[in-house]
């Protein structure tokens, strides 16, 4: 596929999306634009959908994408609504300023919560948001300034029970509250909705959006892809809270009056149900889910259903609106976890995949696949040129660690390890289980901070450098058990290796112009090239979870090399590979070495080690047992003893001896 | 002041009585019963339904309520938690399903029983006890005694009985416990069920004091989570300390700053504990393994 064609196709889809939404918004507005009394309730419904969809878009980023569960979204709606109303009523602030401050306040508060709860996971975060939401409810329902259950504003304290209508450039934005006036406010809300959805779509397709998925999958992975996890969690929480705050502002403008009962805890649940029903993490899901739930709540069908229940089942034991939402939520969890939009798009994606015949079965098996030697020559040329140009600079030890030690509690995992890897060299780290090999790899990539010793990259001490900066500095790695986004396509997984994953801001994700586009194209080209090198380009569109284990390892390796790192750390790359896959791997490793990469492999597969490693370091009990050229190390008696046990060592060297030494 | 502190301690013991169910459930299942408020209001209404049958006597009625609540707990786990709790800590479907089940039950109770407050009429010791300047209602003292006893029994049982040992084994490492031949699923269901004994008794005694209503449970739910977070989700007896702290802080700040701030202060304290010491007072900090 040519680049120009894909570029135009993406743009075209973007225009179609924006155009379609706009037409939809205009059509819906026209049905209520007369302001006739009969259309009032529909105008209110449309306005409410437009408002609350924003809060649900927030959930879809926060919960659906980043995997940060929150039961507090409704509270931010309340904060936005009350702050804006209070600033206008109490201090007479102009509306635009009150809106801005209300939304900003929500963003800041959300950011603070994310920062403070950075260490917390799953249920604990849920409890914080639940408690926070309760605090907000207690305050708005019990503080006298907010009129308690008289609502805000109320005639007793504020002289009016309704916010003044907003004027913009002499046009009044009339809410759909009285018959005979065009509900111009609804038109504005629809406009905001369309813009928000367009922005949400762009953001979800950006590297920023992709980075959220990696955080959901594994924060460890995200940090190793160059993402500042805490900061990104803060920004996504702030974004979600700001969207909820905006929803609250719009809600307040729509009804002109706030009652604390509108913001009970159940609102947060309902917003979650809307997100899940539509498809949590999809672009259009929030709109679909919000529209269906709000429509259900106001439609006569629910009332009729309740009447039917009372007649057919019991006058006492029946479910009304809130109970029905509970049932819907249970059914969704059991039968449709991807929601409406998610399920529909999955069905379409499967169909088009079938049409193209792109399932793994149809592909030539690994044995028949062209070896990566058949890479297009131009890529090879370009790369060798680039590499040889800066090879001079890289000569010498790129990565060196000296005297490194680490204890967990009282257990010394690593006592004293020193080693170095030069540019254009493959160093194999071997040793029996529990020798501390993976711990060393983890200290280099920044999972653990060593208690003693130093690790340097190009002479720079990495002591206080967090994992994400080590990745940006050029250290890429794979994991012992591959960590992939199993639900996403192979190419998306490799794109997650792009440098821009950690560095792109959400602002650039939404508003990025041609340069962001070029960046995206360059990332895509790099990802495709990386996939090609591991021999998996044909599988780019498949779901990563559908691949065999060996191929998943290949995807992970492609992700690691997609950002052209300086140092590559591979933790048991050959585990789970068949013979031909292992052969392909060693060819690729040698090629990467020749391009000037410093490669550290932690490996048990001796054929692979022999074929690729220039030097070997053998660890035992957290210390270097032997190091040097492969032949020296592998024939070292101590190494054999550590690896195979003393008997084997004795048998190999002194067949006649019958003395059995205890294992070291 | 002393009055507030003592009242806080007694109410705190009620929070602890609910919290022990959360701790029991968390230890073996790594989940928390978000539908426990529904169990409480269901227990209270059940007790109300049993009120006309005088021949049952008060202990008999409470026993029936406790047995049914135990079954309720087991069903909640089997239907609402077990199918939806995977190995990943990102899997929060069980929270949603429990919240959803809670919505359904609360709605059923509200529709069938109405929103008004009913008088239970039994399971209560009327009158007050006055020592010096301090006056405490006898019912609260009863709640305190019952709570401490039930929590004590469960703590002792978890230490010195075979089932308790197996429970702690599952809490330590479910996989290994399973390999050792422990029927982990029974233990998990059991810990959801056993916790409900205390929850239902607490709900009955409390509703005898404040009346039976659908809104009985939710404030207690938050307070009990608060108690468990402050002490630790891994210590059964510890909840008495967590409950006491939560109860006293709430009572004192209500007394000094008024009810709104009072209600908020306990919740803020819990959030602070989660942020500063997520494992609670008695919890050990978990080491993360990669």
Note down, in words, how this protein is organized.
The complex is a heterodimer of chains A (664) and B (290). Chain A is an alpha/beta fold. Chain A folds into two domains: 38-347, Orthogonal Bundle (ABC transporter involved in vitamin B12 uptake, BtuC); 386-474 and 565-664, P-loop containing nucleotide triphosphate hydrolases (Rossmann fold, 3-Layer(aba) Sandwich), CATH 3.40.50. Helices cover 58% and strands 10% of the residues of chain A. Chain A has helices spanning 3-32, 40-65, 73-91, 95-116, 122-142, 155-158, 184-205, 207-217, 219-224, 229-255, 265-278, 285-298, 300-312, 321-335, 339-355, 377-389, 391-394, 437-445, 467-472, 490-495, 500-503, 506-511, 514-533, 549-561, 579-594, 606-612, 630-635, 637-653; strands at residues 166-168, 171-173, 397-408, 411-422, 425-430, 452-457, 460-461, 475-477, 567-571, 598-602, 615-620, 623-628. In chain A, the strands form three sheets. Chain A has a six-stranded mixed beta sheet with strand order 8-9-10-5-11-12, sandwiched between helices. In chain A, strand 11 and strand 12 form a beta hairpin. In chain B, helix 1 (2-29) crosses helix 9 (217-231) and helix 10 packs antiparallel against helix 11 (259-276). The longest helix of chain B is centred in the N-terminal third of the chain and has 28 residues, at 2-29. Chain B has helices at residues 2-29, 36-50, 57-81, 93-113, 138-160, 162-172, 174-179, 184-210, 217-231, 239-257, 259-276, and strands at residues 128-131, 134-137. The mean pLDDT of chain B is 88. Chain B contains eleven helices and two strands, in the order ααααββααααααα.
